[in-house]
Design goal:
heterodimer; A: alpha/beta; 6-stranded mixed β-sheet; 6 strands; globular; B: alpha+beta; 3 helices; 30% helix; disordered N terminus
Chain lengths: 122, 155
């Protein structure tokens, strides 16, 4: 069984992140628009740098709303992961976030799964 | 003992006067959530579905973000006037929310820009796609000193 190591993300938007094997699982929290998406970008880059994952799992359970600037942060993380042959999983999507990803045609580009367990199993 | 009524209809907010909501905003990203929530509340007050409220709110967010980023080039404190009108014409079978967003910046009219194929993996373009897919009408009307965007959502 893989050991889970806390990354101590410690920001309002990314309150927790942990490493499990070659995966990093980060929880994102809050309504995200152009006002705070730069903060999310910084936290994402930090998680990628320190976790160095093959698989990035973003739990969006506590994200009831995001706009296109937040989507751009997710796409940037996806691009970085793809460059190293990694994957990004989005879990626990709330209806508004899911709707935006569908409109942006990103629902099929990200690996959208039900929860963290499913993402870890894939 | 009387049971309190469950007031599910949202009560008017500041700036909301019957069938009109008028917000005098500044070009600061902190204003985005305020404008979005006020418009969602206004749409809810006039009986729009939760899905329609969410779509209108997101479109206001995206339109205002474009004004802040492009029309005002990221400069804070410039004026943005948002007016939402609820139009009810039962004889015409038409009920709609008409939102205008006026700025005094240097934005370009997207309708006059050369069409660019959308690539989901390239930055940009999502906001405009939201406007065009979620609203029933989207009209950019250049003004001598800025831009007037009109968004219409029918019930």
């Amino acid at each position: 069984m893989n050991q889970s190591i806390e990354l101590n993300a410690g920001t309002d938007l990314v309150p927790s992140a942990r490493v499990e094997g070659t995966s990093v699982i980060a929880s994102i929290r809050g309504e995200i628009d152009l006002h705070n998406s730069p903060e999310l970008r910084g936290a994402m880059l930090d998680v990628l740098l320190r976790g160095d994952p093959q698989k990035l799992i973003l739990n969006l359970q506590q994200v009831p709303y995001m706009d296109s600037s937040a989507v751009a942060v997710l796409v940037e993380a996806l691009q970085k992961m793809r460059r190293i042959g990694g994957k990004v999983f989005l879990t626990n999507l709330q209806p508004r976030v899911k709707g935006l990803l569908e409109i942006a045609r990103l629902d099929t580009i990200f690996n959208v799964v039900k929860d963290e367990a499913e993402a870890l199993a894939k | 003992m009387a049971t309190p009524l469950n007031h599910s209809v949202p009560q008017p907010l500041p700036g909301e006067n019957g069938s009109r909501l008028e917000l005098h905003l500044a070009s600061h990203t902190a204003e985005l959530a305020k404008a979005r929530k006020a418009v969602e509340h206004f749409a809810a007050h006039h009986g729009f579905s939760e899905n329609a409220q969410a779509q209108v709110g997101l479109c206001v967010n995206e339109a205002m973000a474009n004004v802040i980023r492009h029309a005002y080039g990221g400069t804070s404190g410039k004026p943005i006037l948002l007016i939402a009108d609820y139009d009810e014409s039962p004889d015409l079978g038409s009920t709609s929310l008409r939102i205008t967003i006026r700025d005094w910046g240097n934005g370009r009219n997207p309708s006059e820009m050369p069409p660019k194929p959308y690539n989901a993996l390239e930055p940009g373009g999502v906001g405009l796609i939201c406007l065009r897919r979620m609203m029933d009408e989207v009209t950019f009307t250049p003004q001598p000193d800025g831009m007037l965007l009109t968004l219409v959502k029918r019930k």
